[in-house]
UniProtKB/TrEMBL annotation:
Record keywords: Pyridoxal phosphate
Source organism, top-level taxon: Bacteria
Keyword set includes Ribosomal protein: no
Cofactor or coenzyme needed: pyridoxal 5'-phosphate
Protein's UniProt name: D-cysteine desulfhydrase family protein
PANTHER family reported in the protein's UniProt record: 1-AMINOCYCLOPROPANE-1-CARBOXYLATE DEAMINASE-RELATED (PTHR43780:SF2)
Family: Belongs to the ACC deaminase/D-cysteine desulfhydrase family.
Keyword field contains Isomerase: no
């Protein structure tokens, strides 16, 4: 196993507080894993990459925004759900660097801004809210329209895909894979599994590619929060193919395994049933860890069910990547057991 990635990283802007901590979840392990022959559970705290800009998206934007500035851009245009962690992080990064940010958000207008949308507005981002139907049908047109509008005003726009998940954003978690493995080595173990929530595919793609380049036998599994397993297996490979084309590093996609668990999506994206909220309450009370109902809570719930089924039996150590998202707790506060009517 190489001590470092066998490729050079491109330019980046240092925005995140790295390395983020890794810590064991021994009370969770004792309850959900050990009785079923499963591994010790660890958590990589990428919810601590920064404060307001916390989460996995900041690692990706270090590379994406570096490229935007390299191209002379002064305006960032991106898209996501109305409680998008990526959009909130982009808005705050733009404010920090003096860049204009325009967000194309999927959802219905809120009577009062809350959660990530509140932070978008505090950061001074321009916000356009579109119905889920229009968003799904016309997102490419919306990107083109606003890019043309800013160009006509004398700006130089740079469009960032949902979640910053493409071959450029992939560098964020390709580089993070080395940090994670170094963390584990310093704690005296090598993980058998790395698990993350997968909503746009980029984090999973970066971790998968990083572990592949490091020559590890570790299995990276994305717990899907929307769409289906086939979609993410295709999306991860598309991002890796795009990365390969941009970077000039050939990849044997046939030998690259992409693992997706899509059994815990529930009613759909940003829709969680009561057991998810109960899981969020439980880990907060047991470990002092805050998960969110859109991404990490849903993925962690799925992981706990799989542990109880014995699907990780015989493994020694598993790392769950905490990709952030705590600000989304607030708009969904009414779903917690102590707030239900």
């Amino acid at each position: 196993m190489p001590d470092s990635l066998p490729i050079s990283l491109p330019g980046r802007i240092r925005l995140a507080h790295l390395p983020t901590p890794i810590q064991p979840l021994d009370r969770i392990s004792k309850q959900y894993s050990f009785p079923f022959g499963g591994p010790r559970i660890w958590i990589k705290r990428d919810d601590l990459t920064e404060s307001g800009m916390s989460g996995n998206k900041l690692r990706k934007l270090e590379f994406v925004v570096a490229e935007a500035l390299k191209q002379g851009s002064d305006t960032l245009i991106t898209a996501g759900g109305i409680q998008s962690n990526h959009c909130r992080t982009t808005a705050l990064v733009g404010a920090r660097l003096g860049l204009k940010v325009h967000l194309l958000l999927r959802g219905e207008p809120l009577a009062q801004a809350d959660g990530n949308l509140l932070l978008d507005q505090l950061a001074g981002a321009e916000v356009s809210i579109h119905s889920p139907e229009d968003f799904a049908k016309d997102l490419k047109r919306l990107f083109n329209f606003w890019s043309d509008q800013y160009s006509k005003r004398g700006h130089i726009p740079f469009c960032i895909p949902i979640g910053a998940s493409d071959g450029l954003g992939l560098w964020g978690y390709l580089s993070a894979s080395q940090e994670l493995i170094t963390d584990c080595r310093m704690r005296g173990f090598r993980p058998d599994h790395i698990v993350c929530a997968t909503g746009s595919g980029g984090t999973q793609a970066g971790l998968t590619m990083g572990c592949y380049l490091l020559g590890l036998g570790v299995q990276v599994t994305g717990y899907a929060v929307c769409d289906n397993a086939t979609y993410f297996q295709t999306k991860v490979r598309e991002d890796i193919r795009h990365w390969s084309r941009l970077s000039g590093n050939p990849v044997d996609l046939q030998s690259l395994q992409v693992h997706v668990n899509a059994d815990y999506i529930g009613p759909g994206y940003a829709k969680a049933e009561p057991p998810i909220y109960e899981m969020i309450e439980e880990i907060a009370a047991l470990e002092g860890i805050l998960l969110d109902p859109i991404y990490t809570g849903k993925a962690f719930y799925g992981l706990m069910q799989e542990l109880r089924k014995g699907h990780y039996k015989g493994s020694s150590n598993l790392v769950f990547l905490h990709s952030g998202g705590q600000f989304a707790l607030f708009p969904y506060r009414h779903n917690f057991s102590f707030n239900r009517v």
